[in-house]
Amino acid sequence: MTRVLVIGEAIADFLPCDAEGRQFSCVLGGSGFNTTLALARLGLQPRYVAALATDALGRRFRAVLAAEGADLSGLKSSERPMPVAIVSPGAASHGAMFALHLAGTAHEGPADWPVRLPTDIAHVHAASFAATTGVAAGASLVLLADAKARATSSYDPNIRSACLPPHREALALIEARVAAATIAKASQEDLGWLYPGLAPDQALQRWMALGTKIAIATRGEQGSLALTAHGFVEAPGDRITVVDTVGAGDTFTAALLSAMADDGALGDAGHMASAEQLSRWLGLANRAAALTCTRPGCDPPRRAELG
Fold first, then answer.
1. How far is it, in rounded angstroms, from Cα 217 to Cα 159?
2. CB count, 10 Å around CB of 25?
3. Is residue 215 left, alpha or beta, with left meaning phi > 0 and alpha meaning psi from -120 to 50?
């Protein structure tokens, strides 16, 4: 079985149940957790490396991952509470809005990050601001760099500007991780924040120049665009009724990695994807992300739902 290690945040998302915000429902989220959940549902048995609180929310995160068959050996218990986010769901024209509450939570505590990529891991995924700045940032860069010679890796900056340093510093941190990763993926909206005035295809060209092998932009209902040394590949999106967009990008990543694993490309540092392969991978990832957008919170599909 192909093994994937994931570094990234776990956050309890509170979604409004009514227009006035009088009642909220709590769903489990955070880019690292979402990607791990989606990978587990797709059969890749991911190992999630993070600190989870011992409070009720932390226990719920752990129980969900255990029920889905994820590898919990990388989890560390924290006496700090779980971080939370107050979410305003996104629509077809924009992503979800988040009010994050991280100070004094398990997010700021240490986890048992490996100093080298474990030999049983074929791929490492570094997710969002937790892999870019803060206590996990150094470990994520070390693992991405270590994977470059003998495995594959992916990075999604998943921009949350309130959690990042000033733009110039944030850009340097993000580009260092893009350069170390086999695959660098971002939403069109995030690329616009990173590179004001650059079209998505130009931003992907900049990422390729940094050294990543596959640069990907997700574009909502317009689908996705990828660039490799062989040129651009585009895959159309699925037309759906959007409930919210929470977790769509993380599900895209997980489905992409699942498709690569099916082709024996995950963990193969020397694999050069053909245009036909990459188009299939993107198509599956687009379909999985679209299904997630039809559900509240991050509720990624299982393999059987993708056809």
1. 13
2. 11
3. beta
Nearest-5° Cα angle at 26, 24 to 31? 125
- 3-state DSSP of 168-189: HHHHHHHHHHHHHCCEEEEEHH
194-207 as b/e: b if 16+ CB within 10 A: bbeeeebeebbeeb
Question: Which listed CATH number (2.60.40.3230, 3.40.1190.20, 1.10.10.10, 3.40.630.30) goes with 4-300?
Answer: 3.40.1190.20
Name 299's Cβ contacts closer than 8 Å, sequence gap at least 6: 27, 247, 292
**Long-range CB pairs of 163-169, under 8 A, 24+ apart, other chains included:** 163/100, 163/102, 163/129, 163/133, 163/134, 164/129, 164/132, 164/133, 165/133
Amino acid in position 76 = K
Residues 6 or more apart whose CB falls under 8 angstroms from that of 262 comprise: none
List the pLDDT tens digit at each of the 307 positions of the chain. 569 999 999 999 887 888 777 888 888 999 999 999 999 999 998 999 999 999 999 999 999 999 999 999 999 999 999 999 887 755 444 455 668 889 999 999 989 999 899 999 999 999 999 999 999 999 999 999 999 888 999 999 999 998 999 999 999 999 999 999 999 999 999 999 999 999 999 999 999 999 999 999 999 889 999 999 999 999 998 888 888 788 899 999 999 999 999 999 999 887 888 999 999 999 999 999 999 999 877 889 999 998 7
Which residues, other chains included, contact 137 with Cβ-Cβ below 8 Å and sequence gap of 6+? 130, 131, 173
For the chain, the structural domain boundaries read 4-300
> Residue 119 corresponds to which tokens in the numbers above?
């030999």
Instruction: Report which DSSP code applies to 163.
Output: G
State how far the Cα of 307 lies from the Cα of 300, in Å rounded to an integer.
Answer: 14
